[in-house]
Design goal:
Blueprint: H1 3-8, H2 11-42, H3 68-84, E1 92-96, H4 99-102, H5 105-124, H6 127-141, E2 145-151, E3 155-161, E4 166-170, E5 176-186, H7 187-194, H8 201-208, E6 215-224, E7 240-247, E8 254-260, E9 265-266, H9 282-285, H10 287-308, E10 312-313, E11 343-344, H11 352-369, H12 372-375, H13 377-380, H14 388-399, H15 403-428, E12 444-448, H16 451-457, H17 461-475, H18 487-498, H19 508-566
Antiparallel strand pairs: 1-12, 2-3, 2-9, 4-5, 5-6, 6-7, 7-8, 10-11
């Protein structure tokens, strides 16, 4: 939008600029919209909204003749939900950015308390339901959009959008920073949302007539504000502007204007090209195979019908007589001709077995495209007599294919969810009290500890095992080589890669105290042993001296007796 026209324009003129900008964004979205419509038609008819007046009454599954892609889509969605952000286990960890702070017990305890509060917020709000919907949108359309609002009871509240309802744009770094969405409200909803006074006259008249269920179109735009006063702190000078206006009414001014300090929208993409605002998805990539599958399944049904209920030929003389095709029926025909049989008009219409084999091949291709093997590996290898170690190795190997996707989801989805929630907790005063010496704040990082995140880290854990095995084997010949192994570093590496629960691991300080106590105990035991040995030696020497003295006395007595005898 032109900065001068925007700054100098009144409410109506600014509304026109927003509508013009919306038209430009829809033009840019058009190629993706065409793909989204096809994906919805052939995989999930009740996903996406491509007509603002569509409220589900015209949805149909008529184009889905084989549900392989629909089933695989659900497997991948559920696998991402349970593997990346399961509500049943901790999937993220707050930690200080600097190593010095990471060794501070008070800060570690504060991070753990903050994580606990945040997990409780996620559990009590609609976060996990929203995450499941986000994964579903990502797998289908390659892009998902979630607005995060303030909530008086649960701190945050999510509003998920589906494909076709929104337009996006990015900044020069490729980060989504603009959202335009078209939506509908009934008359009564519009009055509650904006107030009676600011609404266009058409909506007011409908309200006055009692037409409370009539739908009206509205536009919501969120984008970086170009006309703000950075010194001001009111909502109209926030970094992001938020504008609501009505569409299709005589009065097209801005109904409501507010703002945000940060972009309150999570818009993850499955995969992107350059700085495109929309992503591509597994469903889009597999769409040619899915269409081919539907076509071949239709062809198979036609072949089977031709085999089981083939077209027939009958003598022309039977035209006036009814022909019954039910089992055991008797048909009477004239016998004037030589050939009065009723038989199939064709003997074969195609190779059904070849078609069935090709359908199986296409289904397998679709399964691979939706990563079904990754999440169903135990079921897929049930009859292969594989060990648990081999299955884990296969799963970790296949995890490599999801590596870029997981990185993007952590950056654009889960990481932003945690940081936006943390920011809203700060605004509400819902975080635990900071340690006294860190009242100005603690720089934080997010470590992801979900099953998928840890599997990515554990892919090369065999390298660590091979290294340590080689070192310990060599130590039998060269004992000094063990001195190069840092036991704490060895434990830390395994904890980081395998996501071991922190409660199972002692801190380095606690471990050092135990080592000191063990060394002191060993030293005391050694001193006690040395003392006992010295005492035993003294007793032995005393006994020896006593024995020697007694032997000397005996000899003297014997000498005295012996000497008398000789005389």
């Amino acid at each position: 939008m032109s900065e001068n026209r925007w700054q100098k324009g009144d409410s109506r003129q600014r509304a026109q600029l927003i509508i013009q900008r919306f038209a430009e964004l829809k033009t840019r979205r058009a190629p993706f919209l065409h793909q989204w419509i096809a994906v919805s038609k052939y995989i999930s008819p009740f996903s996406g909204r491509f007509d603002i007046n569509d409220h589900g009454e015209h949805r149909s599954s008529a184009f889905i003749l084989d549900s392989e892609a629909t089933y695989d889509h659900k497997i991948l969605t559920s696998g991402l939900m349970s593997g990346a952000s399961s509500p049943a286990r901790a999937w993220f960890k707050l930690q200080p950015k600097t190593e010095e702070l990471a060794e501070n017990d008070e800060i570690i305890k504060w991070c753990a308390k903050t994580e606990s509060v945040m997990q409780k917020i996620f559990q009590q709000s609609n976060t996990y339901n929203t995450l499941h919907s986000i994964y579903k949108e990502l797998v289908l359309f390659g892009t998902a959009v979630d607005l995060i609002y303030d909530d008086l009871n649960n701190v945050i509240q999510h509003h998920i959008l589906t494909a076709g309802e929104y337009c996006l744009d990015t900044n020069d770094k490729g980060d989504v920073d603009t959202l335009y969405r078209e939506f509908q409200l009934t008359t009564i909803q519009a009055v509650k949302a904006f107030g009676y006074k600011v609404l266009p006259v058409e909506i007011k008249d409908a309200y006055n007539r009692g037409e409370l269920g009539t739908y009206w179109n509205f536009l919501h735009a969120i984008e970086p504000r170009i006309d703000r006063d950075v010194e001001a702190h009111d909502v109209r000078n926030k970094a992001w502007g938020s504008y609501y206006l009505s569409l299709g009414t005589s009065e097209q001014g801005i109904l409501k204007e507010s703002g945000f300090d940060y972009f309150p929208v999570i818009a993850p993409r499955w995969d992107i090209l350059g700085i495109e605002p929309y992503g591509t998805s597994p469903a889009q990539e597999m769409l040619p195979d899915i269409k081919q599958l539907q076509q071949e399944v239709l062809r198979k049904a036609e072949l089977i019908e031709n085999y089981t209920k083939p077209p027939l030929q009958a003598p022309s003389s039977a035209r006036q007589n009814p022909i019954m095709m039910s089992s055991g029926a008797i048909n009477f025909t004239q016998t004037t001709g030589t050939d009065q049989a009723i038989r199939p008009i064709i003997s074969s219409t195609g190779d059904l077995n070849a078609l069935i084999q090709d359908i199986a091949s296409i289904r397998e291709s679709i399964r691979r495209g939706f990563y079904v093997d990754l999440f169903m590996i135990v079921q897929q290898t049930a009859g292969d007599r594989r060990t648990t170690v081999e299955i884990n190795a296969l799963q970790q190997e296949q995890m490599l294919s999801l590596g870029p996707v997981m990185e993007r989801m952590q950056n654009e989805l889960l990481g932003k969810l945690v940081m936006i929630t943390f920011q809203k907790m700060l605004e509400r005063g819902a975080i635990p009290e900071l340690p006294a010496e860190y009242q100005d704040g603690i720089p934080l990082d997010i470590a992801f500890t979900s099953v998928l995140a840890q599997s990515q880290k554990a892919v090369d854990i065999n390298t660590v095992d091979r290294f340590t095995s080689a070192v310990f084997a060599s130590a039998q010949a060269i004992p000094e080589i063990i001195d190069r192994i840092d036991p704490d570093g060895y434990i830390d590496e395994y904890v980081a890669r395998l996501g071991v629960a922190p409660k199972l691991i002692r801190s380095k300080e606690e471990a050092e105290k135990i080592r000191q106590q063990r060394a002191q105990a060993q030293q005391a035991q050694q001193e006690q042993a040395e003392s006992m040995l010295a005492t035993q030696q003294q007793e032995q020497m005393a006994q020896a001296q006593k024995t020697g003295a007694e032997a000397s006395l005996a000899m003297q007595q014997l000498d005295a007796l012996g000497g008398g005898a000789m005389i």
